[in-house]
Amino acid sequence: xxxxxxxxxxxFLLVLGIVVFVHEWGHYIVAKMCGVKIESFSLxxxxxxxxxxxxxxxxxxxxxxxxxxxVKMFGDADPSSRPDEKVYAMTEIEKKQAFFHKSVGQRAAxxxxxxxxxxxxxxxxxxxxxxxxxxxxxxPRIGEVVAESPAAxxxxxxxxxxxxxxxxxxxxxxxxxxxxxTSRGEPMQVLLERGGSQLEKTIVPKLxxxxxxxxxxxxxGQIGVRAESGNMTYRKLEFIPAIxxxxxxxxxxxxxxxxxxxxxxxxxxxxxxxxxxLRIAEMxxxxxxxxxxxxxxFMAVISLSLGLFNLFPIPLLDGGHLFFYAVEAIKGGPVHExxxxxxxxxxxxxxxxxxxxxxxxDLNQLQIVSYVKGLFS
Length: 377
What we know:
With 377 residues, the chain is of the alpha+beta class.
């Protein structure tokens, strides 16, 4: 309990609070630029714990459940941006301040600003870390090939340098780990450099269970190679190279995430790796003990994940709103209200189901379910 109060809870609230604030601030600032009146800006859901009202009439709130946040705009019936019945009987002055009466382009910009600012936040943090702390770098040269491993069977030897995996350029050993780990056992073409010459090999990674440093079990692809020992360094980058490295790092994270989700959908990857607030809380606490720099890195990764998740075309999420705005722009008029109401209910059910499923996974991964079962056996 002491560890939870001293490390886990403060780190979790700091990480989630900043990431959610950044996301909602994106909606807020673009809405203000478009002339929309903001009624409330809340960190968390449920009853208000503390807050204040600024000169423009916006209520800034800290709410009881710290699992998200929202910006409620003038004309919204609730935080999900469902229009209030009053929007149809507004005066011209009121319409100029209402989100509902803004053009489809303005509404799309306001909604897209949340995920966009999450990506921008991650981008800025990565640049800051790469220029001040350095980027992890291990040369992609093989220091050891495990006997009878996929790499050994493919003819890969100690001293080989990875240049490409498929169409992906390899510049660090960390790139090899990333590309191989998401494989589900499908053959992969690799380009190697050996003794000044280039050669191609086909390798079939094997699936293996691996525990991460937080105790969570993952199924990952492995080929049985290790880097040369003692070569891992942190390379500080100049500003311009740091921009490129940040874009590459973010692109790799998005690509890996989408690839993993696709594998879950088609059934080649299990769902046990999906986590929710409890897993984030546990990881925040453990990373928080390692220092502020690892915690900032983790915060940037969570921000990227939040931005990406919100772009999925699921009703009630930003991506769902953007999908309907795209339909509205194409057809020249808003989607019928009955369709919007029905999809909102479906989206609400889907999101609640996902949260329950993520929480169940968290309870299993954190071995809370086994502990409770043990109390009654």
